[in-house]
Write a structure and sequence with these properties.
The protein contains seven helices and ten strands. The protein is elongated, with a radius of gyration of 20 Å. The protein binds zinc ion.
């Protein structure tokens, strides 16, 4: 599943090709992804210019003259830029034709993605309005986390994966950030000190920034937006390493299920 770093990598990849371009047409090859695709978009979008390409959580926002295309890659979606006339594959469901002659192509084998047209302030859309803070901004910090966690018994790993706490901390990143911060994933969120929350907030930012820098972690169904197949696998210190030696203390990394998600940690380095 595309995680926040992959979505941000996509945003950075497509942005320079989209901003300032006029939309020349829209091709829909399916009636429905996660939700039905509105055929009227084929009349509404052409002629409008892309003003900016933004991201909120794992949503991409293509802001046009009279509204916003809200995109979500779902479980298996990917955006690529191809030249006009490139034959679509079986799972290439949507093409956005640009005045440059390029095509923004939305591929989504499992069809859990979304493409919605939103007028008015897109950040007030029900899908976005109640999301927690962005992990890379100043809103995510130790003080805010501690305040949100007050008296909560939920395990800290589940707490930081909750989209109302902070968006975009997926399972891999939660395990990695907790290892770096030295916090055991099962610890009750309400029992963590401010100093430790501060370390965790920094660790979350670090692991996500490193993943973005690496072009996103390995993922089966994602192709980078310019069509290169490359993925530079981020070095994971605990995730997927059960039984292997901890990089710090050399004791074996342990694996448990927590909130139905596989969870990796070092019982000596994380307390
Ligand atoms: Zn260790």
């Amino acid at each position: 599943m595309p995680e926040l770093p992959e979505v941000e990598t996509t945003r950075r990849g497509i942005e320079p090709h989209l901003v300032g371009e006029r939309i020349a047409g829209l091709v829909l090859r399916t009636v429905k992804l996660r939700w039905p695709l509105d055929p009227l978009l084929c009349d509404v979008l052409p002629g409008q210019t892309v003003r900016s390409v933004e991201r909120r959580a794992k949503y991409l926002l293509l802001r046009l003259d009279r509204g916003t295309i809200l995109l979500h890659l779902g479980m298996s979606g990917a955006l690529r830029l191809v030249t006009a006339g490139t034959m679509p594959g079986k799972h290439d469901h949507v093409d956005l034709l640009l005045s440059s002659g390029q095509v923004l192509r939305f591929q989504d084998p499992r069809k859990f993605g979304a493409l919605l047209w939103v007028t008015g302030d897109p950040y007030l859309h029900p899908l976005l309005a109640r999301l927690g803070p962005e992990p890379l901004g100043a809103d995510l910090n130790g003080t805010a986390l501690r305040k949100a966690a007050r008296a909560r018994r939920i395990a800290v790993k589940s707490f930081i994966m909750d989209q109302q706490t902070v968006v975009g901390v997926g399972n891999i990143y939660a395990s990695e950030a907790l290892f770096r911060a030295g916090i055991r994933p099962t610890l009750a969120a309400g029992r963590i000190s401010l100093a430790r929350w501060k370390r965790l907030a920094e660790a979350i930012k670090q692991v996500l920034q490193e993943a973005i820098a690496a072009g996103g972690t390995t993922l089966q169904d994602f192709s980078q937006s310019d069509g290169r197949p490359g993925y530079f696998k981020q070095q994971l210190l605990v995730y997927g390493r059960a039984g292997e030696p901890c990089t710090v203390c050399h004791e074996p990394i342990e694996s448990i299920r927590l909130g139905q998600r596989s969870t990796y940690y070092c019982r000596y380095c994380q307390t």
